[in-house]
Design brief:
- The longest helix has about 45 residues.
- The two termini are about 45 Å apart.
- The chain is of the alpha+beta class.
- The strands form 5 sheets. A 5-stranded mixed sheet has the order 12-11-10-13-14, sandwiched between helices. It has a 4-stranded antiparallel sheet with strand order 1-9-8-2.
- The protein contains 15 helices and 16 strands.
- Strand 3 and strand 4 form a beta hairpin.
- Helix 3 runs antiparallel to helix 4, helix 8 packs across helix 11 and helix 12 crosses helix 13.
- Helices cover about 45% and strands about 20% of the residues.
Length: about 550
Amino acid sequence: MSKLPVFTYQTRVRLTPEQSASLDVYAELYGRAQRSLFAKMRAGASMNELKRSFLRRFGLTSRQFNAIRVELEGKIALIRERRPELIEEAKWRIKRAEEAIGRLEKKHPGSNVLHQKKRRLAVLRAKLDALLADQESGRVRLCFGSRRLFRKQFALEENGYASHADWKKDWQAERSSQFFLLGSKDEASGNQSCQATVAPDGGLRLRLRLPDGLGSTSKHLVLEGVRFAYGQDAILQALSASRIVTAQTKTGKLVRKREESAVSYRFVRDRKGWRVFVSVEAQPVALATRRLAGAIGVDINPDHLALAETDRFGNLVEIRRIGLHLYGKSEEQAKARIGDACRQIARACAESGKPLVIERLDLCKRKAELESVDPVRARSLSSFAYAKTISMLKAASFRAGVEVIEVDPAYTSVIGAVNHARRHGIGSHQGAAYAIARRGLGLSERPSVREAVVPTRNGGHVTFALPARNRAKHVWSFWADVRKGLKAAHAAHARSGGHRLPPAPLLPKSRALGATRALPAKPRHANRRQHCSADVMDDLPW
């Protein structure tokens, strides 16, 4: 399997009413065949027998049937792969919900919040039981047309439907709103069912093979003037890619054949018309970074991305903060903001020649946090797309020729807050990014202080003594004990009301050691040569 990523580009196609009607009929036939194939597969029928019967029943070509089969098998495999993660996520959510209920029973017994949290716990347990039952039986649940739209039939007026017939019309249209055309490197132009050629004006001409079951007078539908605002060059490069390779037949004979670049197409209908998605394998990019130059670490947070750049010895060179406020934004707006931030980071890595270091996050635990935090924090975490940010960082880095190093996220926030925040006069998140960068370079994570002075959100700080370190154990066992102490210090700080008060000035001894020393880094919007008062706390990076 190729290690090169596959990028997908989309554009809207201009169609005549006749062309649009042809695509509508194609999508209806495709959806009907896919649902029938899923039912037959659930019944345990042989795939070879299904292929022969479906070619006659729906009038499909062999390649069109393979596209339906591959897409359906991909959905089933994804559900089975995702289900263990959903089970673990449900267990984490139940654990967090039980902890929240325990706290509410002590502080607010008989409250409506406690009642709703108990209802939520019952729903989570029922969901977990259903997932475990499906996992044990191997059953796959697949809803064609989306569960969200399916549930709207039970509340027609609330969802803007005058009658069940209006809902059913949308339901049937949604179940037949797209079709997939599988590409292959062994076929001309990378796809037998849809072949693209370059027109004299630079646009693309798509020649789409229609199923025989449509009863059309022509076997092909030609779409002229297809252009992509983004990715046109990559598509043209994939269409022109061709090479001679030596392959071995089943009998062991060596043959020489021409190999193309696979190009897959997906046609999707929405309220404005039809869009076409083209997926091509990315071309190799020369690596522009090396670890001997240092690294740039990224700490991903719900409202911003914290960056820390180091040299090859692990010394801090520069810190940055990229705002990423996604609450209240649409999906497309969130994608645009995340994409801009990721490209900015990839550009900085390429210009400095340093690899990018990110955390290998456990998204199940991140989602489980929603059960035990306040509503404002829950909305912030829910609106932030961790997985989308990580995937976009990897894609932007690949295009820029930047190496991406993934590290274990264990205790990076604690190490950053205790080891680096006070020492360099930076925030906890920048300290975590610094710890991530050093871990990517394989540098030491030993404690550098005996007493922790950790900054808080209001500009103050909490102080506690670090425990004794057992050098016979891994250093992470020490940081596990430090994390317990840090949580206790923050809890005591919150109980005393210190998180609501303006920060108290540091003692002269502490000020000389930490917050007022000259910075080797270059933070944004921060001045550490004088102690900041309460009215300029917005300049602080934490």
